[in-house]
C-alpha cells in the first residue's frame, strides 16, 4: 500500500474529542456574527444573508457580484466550490462546476475572501463540504480561513457528532461554526445541533436540497424554529427555497436571519445583476 | 431454520471501522439512517425475515453458488489450486442480487413503497429493478448518461422490469454522480423512499448492512471448502474491489479469525492504465483519505479535496473510493490490496474463457489475473479461492471492440474514458 499521504495528515482521528481549549485569542468571529444579528434585530428586521459561490460566474467577475450583495448583507456566505456537492440542487451544483472549471478551488476561494475583506467589514461565513477541509488539513484550513478574515464556517455535510475536532479547531482560530437542522430532525437532534452551533443555527426550510421553489418557503419551519430556539444560545437563520421579497418576508417573521443563494445564481445565469434582487429581498427582511 | 447473518466485531457503535466510515451527510438524512439502523437490527434477528430471505436466496437467486475447482487454470498457473466461488451463477448474473433482494425485503418490511438506486455498469440497477418487480415496489434508478449509452441493454432490461431509469448529466456523468443524484433524491423524498445502496460504501449503517447481506458468500465458501478439501480455511482469498461489496462478502467471515488461521485476503484494485499514470480507480494504492457519499475512506481526491474521476476498463470498478471496512483492513493488515491494470484484466478475461469455458465479468477478471500470479508462487497443496463476482455477458461487446483495436495496432487507444466514449458513441 502506498497512499500518497498518511491518514493523520488529512483527517481527524476517531478518538476522543480534541482537548485543545480555545486559545486566548478572542472568539472574534462569534462576536462579529452575534453583533451583526443584533444590529439587524435592533433595526426591526431579520438578518439578510446572501450566499454566493466563490469564483462564480468567474474569478474575475465574482468580486463585483460579492460587492453588490455586500451592499445590504448583514452576513455574507461564500460557498467553496466542490466537485460533489450532494446537499445542493442543480443551481448551486452548476455554480460549483462553473467555478471549478474557471480555476477556483479551495485555496483560491480563501484568497477571494481575503480580497473582499480588504473592502468590506461585513461578517463572512464560508460554506464548505467537509472534504476540502480534510484535504487541506483541518488546522491549516482554519489558519488560512482566519487569515483571510473569515468569521465562521457552515458545514452542510458534517453533523456535529461526526467530528468533534472541527469545532474545537475552529474555536481555536476564532471562527464560529454553524451546523444544520432539518424538518426531519428529531427533538434530540435539534438539541444536539443547536447546542453545537456557535455562530448561528442554520435551519433548512424543506426536506430536500438547495434551490428556489414555488410556493411558500415556510412549511414546517415555525415548529422547527420553536424547538431550535429552546436550546440555542445563538440566532436561528432559515435557508433553502427563499427566492424573492415575499418568501423572505414570510421567513423573516419567524427567523433571526434569511439565507438566499440559488435565486442569486439564477439571476446571474439569466444575465441579470444581483444588486436589484438583493435590494428587494433585503426590503423583504423587514418585519 | 439454519440461515443466519453472522455478527462481526465492527463497526463500533458510531458506525466506524477504526477511523473510517461514519455519517457525513446532510442532517435531513440522519433520522432516516437511525430508522434504517433500528429496522435492520430487528430484521437480522427476526426468524420471519431470515426465513423469507433464505427462501429467496435458494429459490430465486439459486444459492448456494458452487465452489468450483478450476483445474485447467490451476494447471496453467502451475502452483496452488485455484477454486472459483461462482457468484456468476446467481440470477441476474452477479453477487449484486444478494444485497438488492435483502434490502428490498427490508424496505417492504419498513412499509416503504418506493426504492431508489444508483448504478454504474447497470448490474446493481438490474438487480434492484428485479427485486423491486418481485416484491411489488416502485423503482427509480439513477445512471450516468455516459454509462447509459455504454450499457444500453441493461437500461432496457431495467425498463422492462418496470423501473424508471433517470439519466445523470452532472459532474462526469458516471457512477459517482449517479450516487450523488440518488442521495439528493433520498434527501428530498426520505420520508417514503428506501435507498438501496449497491456497495459497502455510504453512511452507516449501509457498509455494515451490505457486508452482512453479502457475507453469505464467505460463509458458503467455508462450508464448501470443507466438502472439497476437508478444511474450512483456504490459504488465500482473492476478490476484486471497486466499492468492495463482493470482496467484503467473501472476506469478512475470514477477516476476524485469529491471525494464525486467517487466510491471506487480497483485494484487487483496478489500476486502469497504471497507478503511476493517474488514470486508475485504485483508491488505496493511489488515493488519500477523504469523505465521499457519507463515509470517511481512501478516496481519489486532489490536494484541495476535489474528487478525481476514476478510470477503469470496468464500469463496475470505476468508483473513486473504497468501502470503510476495506480501509480498516488495509491499515491493520487484515487484508492486502494490489493493483491490476486494464490490459492485465483483459488478458485474464480471455484466459479464463479459453481454459474453463467461463466468460467472467471484466471486474472479476482483475481478481483472476492476480490469483494466477499468486498461485505460481504457492505450493500445489495450497488453495486459493477467487470470488468470481459476475459473468461477462455485459462486457463481451466492449471486449470485442478493444481486441479489434489491439489487432489494428491501436494499443495506445486501449483505454476507456470519457474522451474515448464520446468518440465511440458520437
Q: Give the N-terminus to C-terminus distance of chain B in angstroms.
A: 55 Å
Question: Mind telling me the C-alpha Rg of chain B?
Answer: 20 Å
Q: Tally of extended strands of chain B?
A: 14
Biggest sheet layout of chain A:
9 strands, parallel
Content of β-strand of chain B: 15-25%
Structural class of chain A: alpha/beta
Mean pLDDT over the residues of chain B: 94
What is the approximate shape of chain A?
globular
Query: What is the approximate shape of chain B?
Result: globular
What is the terminal separation of chain A in angstroms? Answer: 60 Å
Share of residues in strands of chain A: 5-15%
Helix share bin of chain B = 40-55%
* Percentage of residues in helical conformation of chain A: 40-55%
Unreliable sequence segments of chain B: 412-426
Strand order of the largest sheet of chain B: 3-4-14-9-10-13
Query: Strand arrangement, largest sheet of chain A?
Result: 5-4-3-2-1-9-8-7-6
The number of E-state strands of chain A comes to 9
Number of helices of chain B: 17
Major sheet summary line of chain B: 6 strands, mixed
- Structural class of chain B comes to alpha/beta
- Major interchain interface with per-chain residue totals: A-B, 55 and 53 residues
Q: Would you give an account of this structure?
A:
The complex is a heterodimer of chains A (287) and B (426). Helix content of chain A is 44%, strand content 12%. Chain A is α/β, with parallel strands linked by helices and 287 residues long. In chain A, helix 9 crosses helix 10. The radius of gyration of chain A is 18 Å and the shape is globular. Chain B has helices at 30-44, 47-61, 71-77, 96-109, 123-135, 145-150, 152-160, 175-189, 206-214, 216-229, 245-255, 283-286, 324-332, 342-356, 362-376, 396-407, 418-425, and strands spanning 16-17, 20-21, 67-69, 81-86, 114-119, 138-144, 164-168, 193-195, 236-241, 264-272, 288-292, 295-299, 336-341, 383-388. A 6-stranded mixed beta sheet of chain B has the order 3-4-14-9-10-13, sandwiched between helices. Chain B is of the alpha/beta class and 426 residues long. In chain B, strand 11 (288-292) and strand 12 form a beta hairpin. Helices cover 45% and strands 17% of the residues of chain B. Chain B starts with 15 loop residues before the first strand and ends with a helix. At the A-B interface, helix 1, helix 4, helix 6 and strand 6 of A face helix 1, helix 8, helix 12, strand 11 and strand 12 of B.
